[in-house]
Amino acid sequence: MLGEAVGLRLLSRGHDVAAHNRTRGRTARLASSGAAVMGSAREVAAASDVAITCVTDADAVRAVTFGVDGLAAGVHAGLVIADMSTICPDDSREISRRLLSEHGVRMIGVPVMGGPDAAAAGELVVMADGDAGAIKACEPALRDISREIHRLGESGTAHTIKLAMNLQIASLAISISEGIELARRGGADPEDFLKVLNSTYFATGMSRKKAHRMARGEYPPTFLLRNLEKDISMAVRLAGSRGASLPGALAARAAYGEAVRAGHGGLDYTGILRHISGS
Is CB count within 10 Å lower at the N or C end of the chain? Predict the structure, then answer.
């Protein structure tokens, strides 16, 4: 969803876009909008100055980068790989080091805040890390998909902050869900709860833009619940590896893990309300 939206936005801003998806049918909209659809990641790398990866996890990043016909097979002088996936910072550092040592290619981390709608409007928030010169080479594309670019230091830093941000998403979604459920069970209209919430200091973009749909039991996916569960689990593991315990994150991991096991993983992450309500 996000990768397609980024590609469409870049096309609309006049960039030449070469696209590849391991599920070929998912490039149809890009093709009809003018993208050159390639048969492999290798071909994308060979045709590009900047190759953006946007996949589910670190194993997928490695596969699309180092696998058969991966990006590494199509490297050329000046190529920069920009990874927009949400992965563990330790994995990001390892992949970046391997690309540089084995192939002479710079990789930067560019995870984002904001979903497909934000990408389509050029309103993403980009967190960029790694080589400053590589970030600068990517800036024309990054500026056209975002309203703000944060330059955050060495490789892995952006992915650390991205995981910290996704903890905020998970906690907010649970809190709003519990507020809606408490209001409903207590005989109040959930819309009245949201009206009051959104008139206070505690209003958020989620409470304004998504919560009304949540109250109606509508969860059109922009960020899959199962992917947020993956990110929360990653954050908990990262914290543990650094000697930290995050009680809120542990509780969120348990709730989202139960929701995935209950069959709600394909919903939007706000579908945690369906699990909490037992519906």
Answer: C
Give the domain 159-277 fold. Answer: N-(1-d-carboxylethyl)-l-norvaline Dehydrogenase; domain 2 (1.10.1040)
Roughly how many angstroms between the first and final C-alpha of the chain, as a whole number? Answer: 26
146: left (phi over 0), alpha (psi -120 to 50) or beta: beta
Between vectors from CA 86 to CA 123 and to CA 36, what angle results, nearest 5°? 65
Residue listed under structure tokens 């050159």: 36
Q: CATH homologous superfamily for 2-155?
A: NAD(P)-binding Rossmann-like Domain (3.40.50.720)
Tell me the C-alpha distance between 45 and 271, whole Å. Answer: 37
Rounded-to-integer distance, Cα 52 and Cα 44, Å: 10
pLDDT averaged per 10 residues in sequence order, the chain, 279 residues? 94 96 87 95 96 95 96 95 97 97 97 95 97 96 98 96 98 98 98 98 96 96 95 97 96 98 97 94
